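May I ask for a single protein's sequence together with how it folds?
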Amino acid sequence: MKFASAAAALALTSLAHVASGTDIYLTEMPAVIPGNYTNYKYDTESGSLTTLASQLESSYTAYDMVAGSATCGKRYYAAAVQAFISWGLMVTDVETGKTQVIDHTDFPSETNDKLVQTIWCDGTDSTGNSLIAVLSDTENPTYSVYRLVVDKDMSVSTSLIADIPQGPHESNTGWSTEFQATPDGSQVYASWAVKGSSNSNGSIKRVDVESGEVSEWSVTGDNGYVYAMFPKENDAKQISAVLNYNGVSSRAFLTLNDDGSVDLGDSEEDQSLFLGGMPWQIDAEGQVGMALDNKQPQHIDFFDVDSLEVLSSLEEKDIFGDVQNRKLGGLTWGK
């Protein structure tokens, strides 16, 4: 166990009182292959770091845990991807430290060719075995919301909830930030960009997990597509979001109208809000978000979900006690 600097722990004191949980989980990918991926739990209140598990990655797999992740019950999950070579789902028991990556070939036949994009805990399941996930085809990607269940023997079952529609002129944004769910996992949102528009507009889709019903809104204007968004409750009308237009990022406060339009309100340019492609996380109370920067050395920003103002940051040195330009991913809140 290592301890972060006293300054870092002090800076996160207010965060610990706001967020619904003080623990965060993350994964360090190996610097060279073959090498080990390592799972950690970091307590933002005490500044303590605990190693949960470590597993050898072969030169064949070389998984990256840079897409969706979630801690549900006693399990820490993360999407594991070595694009077009191998992919699957990492599952770690946070009590015993037992860890493994379930290969996509062990998924049911109807989903064993699909990538796990993002995942959230299934709010209807208290065991932690059930996830709500966005899966995509590996070619000409189409995206769908599934319920994904991993039983005690690590066998996977999947059931389709709904396909996320894409118009003929729409495409994914290229960032995993384009997907988000309400804190209870009962509604999943997706953001698409419009092809040929210099990414100046797009659309928002919402999937209701219980009914499978899909709602849609058009984002028009010259402020950009929705890079990330933070729905705090079911059927939210107002959502804080980050827009991106030709590499320029802005905070905005969206109103989703009943006629399918979106009012963008006044946006404010803030390039610090662009942190790369890994999913942003919302705590269980919908109050505090966090995101892991792609750039080395990596850092974690914690922000107020309503204002998108940064509350605090954690540098690599704060967490590990030194800087080695570690390759980090799989960031999620503890439960």
User: Anything to note?
Assistant: The radius of gyration is 19 Å.
